[in-house]
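Reading a protein record of the kind used here takes only a little practice. An example makes this concrete, so a full record is given next.
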Amino acid sequence: MESDFICAGASKGATHRLLLLHGWGADADDLVPLGEMLRQGLSGIKLELVAFRAPQKHPEGSGRQWYGLFPPNWAEVPFAINDLQKRINFFSRSSVPLEKSVILGFSQGGAMALAGGLDLPMAGVVACSAYPHPNWYPPKKSPPIFLTHGLDDDVVPYEASKRLIRALKNNKLEADVNLFEGGHEISLELIPIIQSALQKWLV
């Protein structure tokens, strides 16, 4: 199990946890610097960072993927979600329960965060530059949700987040949304905004 994740931050005496899901072609260490920036801006919270490594090797030889994406292998998605939820629940057995954990994903990891995290009793879900899987339906109840997307994203166009918002509203769920001037990225201007959400959810 240890090869499937990286732990950083306040692993001893942690009161809360941030789970990080990287995008297609990246690896577990990709979002750790972001997690460190977010962690340092929180008040009164000892945050442990856990960055998951996607289960499959990237077809081009470096990096990882949650499932085949170019071309998309949607048939693998249910298995990827099941694997992710098993890993999330593994950590819930520790001193930090799911109710004190937030999951943050980028791009393919954002899609996985929504598909795998919304029906778990987590403190919140952050999805950056994410998209809905085909025939995705959110649950009737969910943790708080925060979506971010660059208006000039040419990898996952921001219309994908609009589809997410519509699907959530159709199930009477709300999400805080931040559309920013930028591309397929987590802009530095988002750091204090995400920190504010984490501070509110994790107190």
